[in-house]
Design a protein that fits this description.
The structure holds 2 protein chains of 2 kinds. By secondary structure, chain A is α+β, with helices and mostly antiparallel strands. Helices cover about 50% and strands about 15% of the residues of chain A. In chain A, helix 1 packs across helix 3. The chains are: A alpha+beta, B mainly alpha.
Chain lengths: ~100, ~180
């Protein structure tokens, strides 16, 4: 069964652990959820670009490697605004599923 | 029935070594790389016997040389360097070559697609897809998985490129 969570929310949570690139983020999300959530290549990159447009992450070019045919990796790093959004997401999900008390309660 | 038929070598030293190998392993394929013998498709159970025969042959050459007027350096060299390869190893080598060829074909297709899409998408998505395909090939996954991954990556790269270009065009239009 697919976990009903958006790619953007999952990527934001994964990026809290440090900067990374698309392929590694897919692995990271899979590991963090013990294989229960597997992001699709087709949805990850548009989600990352959308997060960047919203100012929640920043991207920069990394090293080129022969396995990539000399193409550079693009790393993503969470911004302050992104950290705040990720924390809010976590609180909202926690409150919804009853793990945390809702804010202000 | 022998898998490979080969005329005995013209060089008598090489022909003798070939005979020793083929007597034990009739299915073997003999390849000479300079003075080095490579006998392929030798079953693992025959390794000890073939090895012993070649070793005995080498010892005969060395120790009987006083009586035969000396062994030639070439003959001794031929008897010293040999490799036996079992069918399972050849299968692994064949699979690895096939996977590398598949990965190279995919890389060529991606190089062509790169011409059609924005640079950022080419670097990021095609680069990641190639890296993933390289990992699959290194893990020895079947070729169909590599081609399937390449096909899905191509589809999403083109789709995301269309999305990206159309959203940037719409953005410009809205600003105007």
């Amino acid at each position: 069964m697919d976990i009903p969570i958006t790619a953007k929310a999952a990527l934001l949570q994964a990026l809290i652990r440090g900067p990374s690139f698309g392929l590694d983020l897919i692995d990271r999300v899979r590991r963090q959820t013990s294989g229960r959530l597997s992001l699709n290549n087709g949805s990850v990159y548009p989600a990352l670009r959308a997060l960047e447009r919203e100012g929640l992450v920043k991207s920069y070019e990394g090293e080129t490697t022969p396995e990539r045919g000399g193409r550079p990796r693009r790393y993503y790093k969470i911004t302050g605004l992104g950290q705040k959004a990720a924390t809010e997401n976590r609180h909202a999900a926690g409150a919804l599923f009853g793990f945390l008390a809702p804010e202000g309660a | 029935m022998r898998r490979f038929w080969k005329r005995p070598h013209r060089d008598p030293y090489r022909a003798e070594i070939e005979r020793l190998v083929l007597e034990c392993a009739p299915d073997a394929r003999i390849i000479w790389n300079g003075p080095a013998l490579r006998a392929e498709y030798v079953d693992r159970s025959m390794f000890d016997e073939v090895g012993q025969r070649l070793w005995d042959h080498r010892n005969r050459l060395v120790h009987n040389s006083q009586h035969t007027g000396g062994v030639s350096a070439e003959a001794l060299n031929l008897a010293n360097s040999w490799t036996l390869i079992e069918p399972e190893v050849l299968e692994l080598e064949r699979r690895e070559r096939a996977l590398n060829r598949a990965a190279a074909r995919v890389a060529t297709v991606f190089d062509l697609i790169e011409l059609l899409v924005p640079r950022r998408i080419a670097d990021e998505e095609i680069g990641d897809a190639l890296e993933l395909i390289g990992r699959l090939a290194a893990e020895g996954r079947p070729r169909w998985q590599i081609y399937l991954k390449a096909a899905s990556a191509t589809f999403f790269v083109l789709l995301n490129a269309v999305r990206e270009v159309s959203s940037s065009l719409l953005g410009k239009k809205n600003k105007a």
